[in-house]
Design goal:
The complex is a heterodimer. Chain A is an alpha+beta fold. Chain A has twelve helices and nine strands. In chain A, the strands form two sheets. In chain A, strands 1, 2, 3, 4, 5, 6 and 7 form a seven-stranded mixed beta sheet that branches. In chain A, strands 8-9 form a two-stranded antiparallel ribbon. Chain A starts with 6 loop residues before the first helix and ends with a helix. In chain A, 57% of the residues are buried. Chain B is of the alpha+beta class. Chain B folds into three domains: 32-125, Orthogonal Bundle (Butyryl-Coa Dehydrogenase, subunit A, domain 1), CATH 1.10.540.10; 130-252, Butyryl-CoA Dehydrogenase, subunit A, domain 2, CATH 2.40.110.10; 255-370, Butyryl-CoA Dehydrogenase, subunit A, domain 3 (Up-down Bundle). In chain B, 42% of the residues lie in helices and 14% in strands. Chain B contains eleven helices and ten strands. In chain B, the strands form three sheets. Chain B has a four-stranded mixed beta sheet with strand order 1-4-5-8. In chain B, strands 2-3-7-6 form a four-stranded antiparallel beta sheet, with no helix packed on it. In chain B, strands 9-10 form a two-stranded antiparallel sheet. Classes of the chains: A alpha+beta, B alpha+beta. The structure holds flavin-adenine dinucleotide (2 copies). One flavin-adenine dinucleotide (FAD) is lined by residues 98, 131-132, 134-135, 140-141, 165-167, 217, 367, 370-371, 373-374, 376-377, 380, 392 of chain B.
């Protein structure tokens, strides 16, 4: 029985934490939010130099050849300090899609460049102000040329490539597109401008098929399940940071002659934060196990991790503002940075409602499978 | 990361399950047909007694105890493995947990060697059942507010007062009790701890009818009851310290609120009709079940993290402290859901075992949120002990016990 990370993985995590603290990642996140940039290029370059973009990439393609568990511990640290870098788009989504579904030729071309940072990738799904489904994707692919408009695409400003979800002849396809000047990439304002999001206009742009033709929707679900686990680590990292902030503020702030942390309304609030965070953390560990072992339980495990991590970070970031009183509502205090990021992360691979539905569908599927096998 | 036992753990697990297979019935999926008789019945008590004896004879009863008292000197992890395996079998639970979980450790720590040899083996064998006499009418969450009086008289102490909510007192042989020997000092300083023969003259036990209709707890009156000083546990005035050791164990002993869970709610919703379609098609129901599933899974995985730490020889973190708050509240929500799903007919008691389980969950959870530390007290403990927030200001600080304001 070992539902825990190894000593090496914990070492990687503490190194990551030290590095991001030293580089003042949180301050950089605020600077990106305040400024015109869509990311912190310097921090991103340093992260590339540390080799994190290649954690999961096999050594034959210049990567570190490590596993998902190493990605999870790094994700927790990036989440704790709201790192303003395109790590999640390029690593959890794009790189994973290439590793899992792309041809050898594409791998040989792109994987080394993803390690070196020459290539940065993203995933373009959404088109309208509603949840994407297999039936409302309008971006078309014909003769390998893609046309359509995607919105809320993370990091498309710096990304050199994108996997684009398209409607093809046989159904949904995953299409690899190079984001050149021919693509109309425009920055969009979001609830958390510390992470850049963009619209992409594609007009007859060349593309390569990734994965089987017409199988794109299914592959996308698998990609999102995987990413949900890694995002859940970002979420528990952020939730832990807000619980720490709230706890320390509650110990130091006095009202009516005593520390506000001695009032039960605050104590019980913080205990509830701890409870939600603990449930989310334990479920994320389970998700990490399912991810790292490519378990058939991944879809249920990912949804479980996703739902509880979203609930934890939403709740913790919101009640952290409340605990800070008027200060919590100011731009100056960091509380809102976490509140924004919590909301962004709770949407980026699908909303809470979407993932609760996935969880129940997963349970229904497991049950049907069990009945068939006579379990 | 893996969920596999080490070779040694796997061997131990096989040993447990083999013995269980030979000696008990595996749980069926049908739910609680309860073959051991109604709780609080003598039939149930007898079934519990004989199961405990069987376990003791094979060494399983208190497997982490030293061999001289009937244990196997098993590691904490082996104890958890045994618990996991035993939970798969339909065995009578709920009679011995308090005695073994609370009185056991306190006797182990504070009794004399002679007393341990006399009392521990029959306790483990289930031949003598123990109860916990802490709560009083004026002292529940605030155990240290207790008033039962102890006055020294030669080699004896004379006890007068009343205990309440004492689970199992009606069939117990011994109890651990904390009483006030000195009301003139600070409340925590004026208490002393004993164990007492429940058949002593002057003890009067009156079962209390609970909201479930059953009577598993009691009022216990003490009228000039004599306890020999040799049955004192800890020094005079050390009662609070001894009680706290016990209360720490209580959180481990109480643990999970047993009963219907997310899986049962899910299966029920698949079979139950809701306005012409399966209840599971209702969106509100799907969302609620997803929430309970995440909580149940979170608790299960939290336990596995605790086990992982033990397995490596590390001290587990404080994460298990969330267990009772989460599980008791979840149980109450699921009980409500099940009953509500029957609409107007939800009020009826029926023969359907699932409906019976939902009714039990709905009523029983109300007690579980109180027993072994209320939700509010447990959240205070998380806030103060885990997060390090300051203690509540107290109206009883620095006062002699007799001068502390008291209410209802
Ligand atoms: C948008 C906005 C507009 C405002 N406008 C005005 C204005 O026009 N004029 C003006 O004078 N003020 C104004 N305020 C100030 C506002 O009244 C205070 O922010 C508020 O009273 C809380 O005080 P605080 O910020 O000092 O937080 P604190 O009092 O430090 O509270 C911090 C946290 O501790 C909790 N807490 C404190 N005491 C207790 C207790 N006894 N029991 C339980 N919990 C407790 C609080 O609920 C909060 O969660 C405004 C604030 C905001 C956010
Ligand atoms: C089924 C069951 C079995 C039990 N078995 C035993 C047993 O075997 N032996 C035994 O000794 N006792 C037993 N108890 C008693 C149990 O430990 C007490 O009921 C419990 O500690 C609460 O005490 P109380 O009932 O006096 O409620 P009170 O302490 O009066 O509490 C009333 C309400 O006030 C709240 N409250 C009290 N203090 C605070 C505070 N500081 N901050 C915030 N809220 C507060 C409580 O949370 C609760 O909601 C049992 C109880 C139950 C329900």
């Amino acid at each position: 029985m070992n539902l825990d990370f190894s000593d090496d993985q914990k070492l990687l995590q503490s190194e990551a934490q030290k590095f991001l603290q030293k580089e003042q990642s949180l301050q950089r996140s605020r600077d990106v939010l305040d400024g015109e940039q869509a990311l912190d290029t310097d921090l991103w370059q340093q992260i590339i130099a540390m080799g994190w973009t290649g954690i999961r990439i096999p050594e034959q393609y210049d990567g570190l050849g490590l596993g998902h568990l190493e990605l999870c511990v790094v994700a927790e640290e990036l989440g704790r300090c709201l790192a303003p870098v395109p790590f999640s788009s390029s690593v959890y989504l794009f790189t994973e899609a290439i590793i899992k579904f792309a041809s050898d030729a594409i791998k040989q071309d792109l994987l080394p460049k993803l390690v070196s940072g020459e290539c940065v990738g993203t995933l373009a799904i959404t088109e309208q102000l509603l949840a994407p489904t297999e039936h409302n994707i309008n971006t078309q692919v014909a003769n390998n040329k893609v046309s359509g408009t995607k919105i809320a695409v993370p990091d498309a400003g710096i990304a050199t490539h994108s996997i684009v979800i398209c409607k093809g002849v046989k159904g949904i396809d995953l299409r690899l597109v190079e984001l050149t000047d021919h693509c109309n990439v425009q920055k969009q304002d979001t609830i958390d401008d510390s992470r850049g999001h963009f619209s992409i206009g594609l007009d007859n742009v060349d593309s390569l098929l990734v994965g089987g033709e017409g199988e794109g929707w299914e592959l996308l679900q698998n990609l999102l399940d995987q990413a949900a686990v890694m995002f859940s680590f970002e979420q528990i990292g952020g939730a832990q940071a807000t619980l720490d902030m709230a706890t320390s503020y509650a110990q130091q702030r006095f009202a009516f002659g005593r520390a506000i942390g001695s009032y039960q309304a605050i104590k019980h609030k913080l205990a509830d934060m701890y409870i939600k965070l603990t449930l989310a953390k334990s479920n994320s560990y389970y998700g990490a196990w399912a991810l790292s072992t490519d378990s058939v339980e991944l879809n249920v495990a990912a949804a479980t991790a996703r739902v509880s991590a979203t609930q934890a970070f939403n709740y913790c970031s919101q009640e952290n503002i409340q605990t800070h009183g008027g200060n919590g509502f100011t731009w100056e205090y960091d509380c809102h940075l976490f509140y924004r990021r919590a909301k962004l992360l709770s949407l980026n691979v699908g909303s809470l409602a979407t993932w609760k539905e996935k969880l129940i569908l997963g349970l229904e599927k497991t049950q049907t499978a069990n009945v068939k096998q006579g379990v | 990361m893996n969920f596999n036992d080490s070779e040694q753990q796997a061997q131990f697990r096989t040993k447990c399950s083999t013995w269980l297979h030979d000696n008990a019935q595996r749980k069926t999926q049908a739910g609680s047909d309860n073959p051991h008789g109604k709780r609080d019945s003598s039939e149930f008590l007898n079934a519990a007694r004989s199961w405990q004896k069987k376990k003791f004879d094979a060494g399983w009863a208190m497997l982490h105890w030293p061999k001289i008292y009937g244990g196997l000197e098993a590691s904490p992890l082996e104890r958890i493995i045994w618990g996991q395996e035993e939970a798969k079998f339909d065995v009578p639970q709920g009679i011995y947990e308090i005695g073994l979980g609370m009185a056991g450790p306190v006797m182990m720590q504070y009794a004399t060697e002679q007393q341990k040899q006399r009392y521990l083996p029959p306790m483990a064998a289930g031949e003598e059942i123990w109860c916990q006499l802490f709560s009083e009418p004026s002292a529940g969450s605030d155990v240290a507010g207790l008033r039962s009086k102890a006055v020294q008289d030669g080699d004896d102490w004379i006890i007068n007062g009343q205990k309440v909510w004492t689970s199992g007192a009606q069939f117990c042989d011994y109890g651990i009790i904390v009483v006030r020997h000195d009301p003139n000092v600070d409340k925590h300083a004026g208490m002393t701890f004993f164990f007492v023969d429940m058949k002593s003259p002057g003890i009067d036990i009156k079962p209390i009818k609970q909201i479930t209709g059953g009577s598993s707890f009691n009022e216990v009156y003490f009228n000039d009851v004599r306890i020999p000083d040799s049955q004192r546990l800890g020094a005079i005035g050390d009662g609070w310290r001894v009680a706290i050791t016990t209360l720490m164990n209580e959180r481990l002993a109480v643990g999970d609120a047993n009963g219907v869970d997310a899986t049962e709610a899910f299966e029920w919703a698949q079979g139950q009709d809701d306005h012409g379609q399966a209840l599971i098609q209702n969106h509100a129901v799907r969302e609620s079940i997803a929430d309970w599933y995440c909580q149940a899974s979170g608790l299960k995985n939290t336990k596995l993290r605790t086990m992982s730490a033990l397995s490596k020889g590390d001290t587990p973190g404080p994460e298990a402290s969330i267990t009772k708050v989460v599980s008791a509240n979840k149980l109450q929500a699921i009980g409500n859901f099940g009953i509500d799903s029957l609409d107007m007919a939800g009020m009826l008691k029926t023969e359907r075992s699932e409906v019976h389980d939902f009714h039990n969950a709905w009523l029983g959870s109300a007690g579980l949120r109180i027993a072994g530390g209320t939700d509010e007290i447990l959240k205070n403990i998380i806030a103060e002990r885990v997060l390090g927030l300051p203690q509540d200001p107290r109206a009883d600080k620095g006062l002699a016990f007799k001068d502390i304001p008291s209410g209802k």
